[in-house]
Write a structure and sequence with these properties.
The protein has one domain. Helices cover about 80% and strands about 0% of the residues.
């Protein structure tokens, strides 16, 4: 998967996060924002892959947390995890 495709997934995650309905709690929004910034920074700089791969467990934990209240967001997070793993990032 190309970096552009990964960036598209990051955009989709942000869109899902801002969709109507019940907003995720502030702590979850903060954690997700932090993970997203880390991934974007690694993609932008071409930094070592290992730190981004370390984000997968955090993303999966957030996906589980969002499953009931934000299923589209949870699904998109899992797509992002899959894409990162397949890209070796």
């Amino acid at each position: 998967m190309s970096q552009e495709s990964l960036r598209d997934l990051l955009v989709r995650v942000r869109e899902r996060l801002n969709e109507g309905g019940d907003a995720p709690d502030p702590e979850s929004r903060h954690l997700l924002g932090s993970v997203m910034r880390d991934i974007e920074r690694r993609l932008g700089t071409g930094a070592a892959a290992e730190p981004v791969m370390a984000q997968a467990p955090r993303l999966e934990s957030l996906a589980v947390k969002f499953e009931a209240g934000h299923p589209k967001l949870a699904e998109t997070l899992r797509e992002l995890i899959d894409a990162l793993v397949k890209a070796g990032i």
